[in-house]
Design goal:
Layout lengths: L9 E10 L2 E11 L4 E5 L6 H9 L6 E5 L8 E3 L13 H6 L3 H4 L7 H13 L15 H14 L4 E5 L7 H16 L4 E6 L2 H5 L4 E6 L2 E6 H7 L10 H5 L11 H4 L2
Parallel strand pairs: 3-7, 3-8, 5-6, 6-7
Antiparallel strand pairs: 1-2, 1-4, 8-9
Helix pairs in contact: 4-5, 5-6
C-alpha cells in the first residue's frame, strides 16, 4: 500500500518483534500513507496489538526499523475503555483535558483557546451534556468516546486504537465507527486500529492489514477473507448481524480516505 502523491507516513522495514526468545512478528514490511483508516485484523494472539505498540514506539523491534513522524507530533493512543479504572474519581471533561497536559506542563491551567478546544471536542463527540459525569457513570460507548476525545484534543494527526468497539452494543459501535470515518474523511487524519472482525472492517474500507502467523500484510477484503478463513476473525459482530445494508452507508474505500 503506498500513495502516489506523497511518501508513506509510516514505514516498517523488515521488523521482527520478540518477547524473550519467542518471536511474535516476523519480517514485517509495511508502508502506510497519510489519511487512511486501516484496520489491523487477525485472530486473537496473532500480534495485532504488538505491531501497533511497536509502531507507537512502546515495543522495540528485535530487528528492522520503523519510521514514523511521532517525534515531531506524537500519535494519539486510544486504549479500550476497560483499561481505565471506573472507580477513578475523574470527570468526562477531565479525561478529555488530559490531551492538552503536554502543552500545559505542571500546575498550569488551560487557557481560553485550550478550553474552547476541549469544548469543541466534547460537542463533536456528543459528550457536552455528560462532561460533569464521572468516568464510571458513563456507558461503554461514552467512555470510549471520552478516550477518543483525549487523543483528538491533543492535535494528533495519527490515531492508534486498540479494538475501540470491543464490548460495545450495536448503537455505540456504529457511532464510534462513524466518528473514526469522519476523522479520515473530513479531517485527513490517519486511523490505525486493532480489530476483531473482517466483515465489520469491510463496511469501513476496501483494505486491511492482516496479521496472522507472525506475518503482516495489507490486503483487499477478498484476499483478507482467504487469508483468515477458518479463524475467529471471520465471525460476525453485533453490528454486522444487526445492520443489513450498512455497507451502502459506510463504505469509503481506503483510496478515497487517503489525502
Amino acid at each position: 500500500m503506498s500513495s502516489t502523491s506523497s511518501p508513506p507516513l509510516i514505514v516498517c522495514e523488515h521488523v521482527h518483534v520478540a518477547y524473550g526468545r519467542q518471536e511474535v512478528l516476523h519480517d514485517v514490511c509495511l508502508e502506510i500513507p497519510r489519511g487512511v483508516l486501516l484496520p489491523f485484523v487477525g485472530p486473537n494472539g496473532a500480534g495485532k496489538t504488538t505491531l501497533l505498540r511497536a509502531i507507537l514506539g512502546l515495543v522495540k523491534p528485535a530487528r528492522g526499523r520503523i519510521l514514523t513522524p511521532f517525534a515531531a507530533n506524537p500519535a494519539g493512543y486510544v486504549p479500550q475503555h476497560k483499561a481505565i479504572d471506573p472507580l477513578y474519581p475523574v470527570t468526562t471533561r477531565q479525561i478529555v483535558d488530559m490531551g492538552i497536559y503536554p502543552e500545559l506542563g505542571w500546575w498550569r491551567r488551560p487557557n481560553r483557546e485550550q478550553s474552547e478546544r476541549v469544548d469543541r471536542v466534547l460537542a463533536r463527540l456528543g459528550l457536552a451534556e455528560h462532561q460533569r459525569k464521572t468516568f464510571g457513570e458513563l456507558s461503554g460507548g461514552m467512555k470510549q468516546k471520552a478516550l477518543l476525545g483525549r487523543a483528538l484534543v491533543s492535535g494528533a494527526d495519527v490515531f492508534v486504537m486498540d479494538e475501540p468497539t470491543s464490548e460495545l452494543d450495536e448503537r455505540s459501535e456504529k457511532d464510534m465507527l462513524a466518528h473514526l470515518e469522519a476523522l479520515c474523511r473530513d479531517d485527513g487524519r490517519t486511523v490505525l486500529l486493532a480489530h476483531h472482525g473482517i466483515e465489520q472492517a469491510a463496511l469501513l474500507t476496501a483494505s486491511v492489514c492482516v496479521v496472522h502467523h507472525g506475518r503482516a500484510r495489507v490486503a483487499d477484503i477478498a484476499h483478507a477473507r482467504e487469508l483468515l478463513a477458518g479463524t475467529s476473525s471471520t465471525g460476525a459482530t453485533p453490528l454486522e448481524r444487526g445492520v443489513a445494508g450498512a455497507a451502502a452507508e459506510v463504505a469509503p474505500s481506503l483510496g478515497r480516505s487517503a489525502r
